[in-house]
């Protein structure tokens, strides 16, 4: 779910430059792939690093902050 949110944020937030949109799409796709991988784990206990939970939050904060900064410079 967080990967899809990062992809949508990159596509829908105004004032984003192409590089940021591409990075959001790649990062979001990576998170989606990681989520599918974790969801398909078998019966074994799977431990994942807690930093994975922070990645989408940091990505969205970066995209929003960059959009706000670019928006304030254009008006």
Low-confidence parts: none
Q: Please give the share of residues in helix.
A: over 70%
One letter per element, helices H and strands E, the order comes to HHH
Average pLDDT, to the nearest integer?
Answer: 78
Query: Count of helical segments?
Result: 3
> Rg from C-alpha positions?
15 Å
* End-to-end CA span: 34 Å
Largest sheet: none
**Structural class per helix/strand content?**
mainly alpha
Shape type: elongated
Total strand segments? 0
Based on the model shown, name its key terms.
elongated; 76% helix; mainly alpha; 3 helices; 75 residues
Folded structure, characterized:
By secondary structure, the chain is mainly alpha-helical. Helix content is 76%, strand content 0%. The protein is built from three helices and no strands. It has helices at 2-12, 18-39, 51-74. Helix 1 packs parallel to helix 3 (51-74). The longest helix has 24 residues, at 51-74. The chain is elongated. The mean pLDDT is 78.
Secondary structure topology:
Blueprint: H1 2-12, H2 18-39, H3 51-74
In short:
With 75 residues, the chain is an all-alpha fold. It is 76% helix and 0% strand. The chain is built from three helices and no strands.
């Amino acid at each position: 779910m967080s990967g899809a949110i990062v992809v949508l944020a990159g596509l829908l937030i105004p004032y984003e430059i192409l590089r940021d949109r591409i990075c959001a799409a790649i990062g979001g796709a990576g998170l989606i792939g990681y989520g599918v991988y974790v969801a398909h784990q078998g019966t074994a206990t799977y431990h994942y690093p807690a930093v994975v939970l922070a990645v989408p939050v940091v990505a969205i904060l970066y995209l929003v902050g960059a959009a706000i900064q670019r928006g304030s410079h254009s008006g």
